[in-house]
Amino acid sequence: MHKLIMIKLSFLKRVLTLLVLVFSLVSYGQTKVRGVVVDVDENPLPFCNVLFKGSIVGTTTDENGKFYLESDKNLNELEVSFVGFKTLIKILKTKITYDLSITLIEESESLDEVFIVTGKQSKKNNPAIDILKKIWARKKQNGLSKFKQYQFEKYQKVEFDLNTIDEKLKKSRAFKGLEFVFENVDTSSITGKTYLPFFLSESVSKVYGDNVLKKEKEVLLADQNSGFSNNNEELKGVIENLYSDYNIYDNHLKFFDKSFASPLSRTGVSNYNYALVDSSFIGNKWCYNIVYYPRRKNELTFKGDFWVNDTTFAVKEINMQVVKSANVNWVRDIYVEQEFDLLNDTTFVLKRDYFLSDFSINNRDKSKGIYGKRTTIYKNYIFDKPINEKNFYKKKVSEHNDAVNHKGDSYWEENRPEKLNEDEQKVFKMLDTLNKVKKFKNFKKIVATVSSGYFEIDKLNFDYGTIFSTIGFNDVEGFRLRAGGRTYKTSNDLFRLEAYTAYGFKDKAFKYGFEAKWLLDTDNRLTITAGNKNDIEQIGAALTNSTGVLNRATGSSSVISTGVNDKLTNLSLTSFTLGIEPIPNFILKASGNYKKLSSASDTFSLSYNETNNTISSEIEQFETGFSVGYYPGRKMAGLGVQRSVTNHSFPEYFAQVVKGNRGVFGSDFDYTKVQLSLYKLWRIGSLGRLETSLETGKTFGNVPLALLNIAPGNQTYYLLDNTFNLLDFYEFTTDEYAAIHLVHNFNGRIMSRIPLLKKTKLRTIIGFKAFLGDLSDQNKAISTTGNSAETALIAPSLKPYYEYSVGVDNIFKVIRLNFNFRGNYLKNTPDVRTFGITAGGVFIF
Length: 845
Known about the structure:
The protein has 845 residues and is mainly beta. The chain contains nine helices and 44 strands.
């Protein structure tokens, strides 16, 4: 599979592992209520409105009719309502009331103004849907889109809390010496769960936008966080990707890389029931209140309500809560509140956005979890003020400097629109203390090792690894052991050296490799990379190869394979690359590579005919290359020579030209190789996501097998990007080719409609792959020497080779299983594979 969409594993492992911290059941609210709403037959009533009478503090019941409500004030009346039922006022006898059961009685008569039915709401003669149609018609006239230019100030606060930790875990041996962390426990006013804050981040920025130019730019003015150093760009990038911005008027809202049907969507009537339940003044504007809830379970939908103005039909307030049955991994709950401000008689703009997510290994209420909270406040809007500065939106803004990261307390007190509560203020002190405890520091090191693959040796500024490549196997080396490491002082090192050595127990030979990278210019990311290696490789495992020395094909040393893996190559490579990124995500590279290639096996031949009628078994070749890569929407973390990607759904456009230079350093061949690859993810709303990948290329000139383009086979049982699962290595050889890969993930839409399977939350995946290519007679002749170990030179020139697959994703939340079928060329080799199973671990929401 290409691009297995996943959240950054290192961050999630870090925060999930912190679940071992615990806290006591202390709470500070004045009035708390937990209960269930049922009908007269004691059937739970989902999506009922529950609020403290005389206040705006309220919630809705979940699918099982359960709710929790809390207020800092002393309140003694609860108002419960639901469409088709009489509104009930419940007197609370105590400030804290748990296990409350409330019974609603059905209405005997409908309201004169509103046509209401119970259960599924009618799509016809429904005033709520009439109002929705007016929202759809006016949505482009509301908000920022009605102005040519706009500016506003933005304050954002992100907090992570541990939740639902019981006394048993609190007293366990694992937390001996860490008891002080339990001093900062509170109770969520939304879920009723106790929680302990362990991370807090704040930022202030200024946003500029131009609807004529279709450009927007955000300038970070200040940034601080607790728990991690301010230069931890990877963490910041992951947080930004986790909580990306969204527009409730869009048809689909992206949360955790999933497309949820918006309650304001034009197609919302096929996903939601709507009911008009109230109308009232909000401020000085008359508004309608509409309740919505899903028509079906197991789909990516919300429950909640919104208030909409009766003249502009702009939303004034909205709350959204993802239903428990939604097919989302690792997330137990999502709750969203947005409040819009009326700037004048006709303009509503976003004022406050609150987002809460409850991360957990499972969906059981009593399981431990992590809250992720984001509060964003918008203020000081300015409209139709053009920016006169030339190329304002194109200029880079450096967010990584002391002026941004080291603002004093007085700055935050002045620019923070709402004060931190007592618990949030304690986070800074608590984390400072915790990071000095040896037990906790050792625990953090273990988590960092598992997530990065490197074991840190701080005193030497050195990391050992990667630990995951320590053991390998192939038919040439037998069992292979590898040891290596890298220099590492901080994540923002401008220079890094990485090296390894390996030993094969069958060929009794040592291998090695090293590579150095140096970032010369941080603004344009001018980078020099140089390295050398002498190793055994599976040439042809990918069509568009990287110039990196330490990159190794998975097929070269898979522990388990589907057949004999002996078509390996001795590779000696020296490489030098100069790269530059003049604008973000647009990368230019120029390289020079000198390599020696020869067969590593007696049962595999790379021999070729030379021009003097002799046969040679080794190639010496110098190449120069130039490549262009463009990755719009890609988000990177880090400032140093090595950065990490924090999102994985951006398009990729890559092209390269490689020139073989005969005679230079004794090179054997003169040729030009042109290659192009494209990748794009298409979100198709509630129907899921389609990944498309196209690769094409042509080699001009006559070259032997080792320099041709091999259809990338997959002789492992693993899911590998852009390979053909039922092709063996070197089954197809070409000098011009085109390959296409299509993978569609239905995100559970199909299985959610099958009664026996919908509770499993499995997801259906279908795939199609094809490869078409040709091989000239001249290139066939060069590699036809009569050697008994020669590989048959076959190209799929008359008809494209294809295979298709049906897969199941989300097995135990982390396993994907593909059943692959070969479509043609069924007699290509004596042991051709017509069916195969591949699997892989996929950490995906």
